[in-house]
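User: Predict the structure for this protein chain, please.
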Amino acid sequence: MINSHTIQLLAPKIQTIPSGKEFIYLVGPIKLPVNLDGETRIFQWYSWMKAEKEMDSRELIESLAAAELAERQQSSVLVYGDFAQATEALIRMHSICHTGDIFGSKRCDCGFQLEQSMKMIAAHGAGALFYLANHEGRGIGLFSKAMAYLLQEEGMDTVDANLQLGFTDDARNYDDAIAVLRALRPEPVTLITNNPRKLAALQEAGLNVGGRVPLWGDRSAYNEKYLQTKVNRSGHLSESDVWDVAASSLPHAQA
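Assistant: Here is the predicted structure, written as structure tokens:
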């Protein structure tokens, strides 16, 4: 049994966000000092989980030990500055990449994009990085991503490898991240991305997206085919592309 003092300490830091027939539980903010190029920047960190039923704070906290959350991934968001009220704020919807973000793999540009977007948000003064745990391998999961990598070593590109395993090119869903974004900031946002599908997902949800900031870099012989496939087959905007957010008429985003 969790004691009442623990409940009192944690309850004010828990938000309940309805999401269809389920509920998102958002905990935070938590002060998180981050090292960016030798300088410490103070971010505010939140994490969230999803459940099928609505719970009060006590029931939620008392369920944690039996929930085996370590067997599943939970997403989080790293907030910088006065994210809720700032006139302009940058956001990044970053898909977890075990190999790129943690090991520094050069097969992709994910680790570079993660670090660079944090630097961009800190330099801008207000923003948020959403770290989406169920997006590994564009939504196919880490084990399936390993299988896809084996197919890529036999000559397939990222799109064909996913298709050959029975997945779509991009199975990612942004609904939960959008619900959390709504809870944290009512004002317009500028999205750090090269992917029009992310922009379209936010727009189709009715969010006010004020613009887009591209994020290219860290090209090498190891990821050149991967980056070209993003542009040529997955519809990503190249470094020279300019997209008018207000005038866009993209087909329905594959969310």
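The first strand starts at residue 14 and ends at 19.
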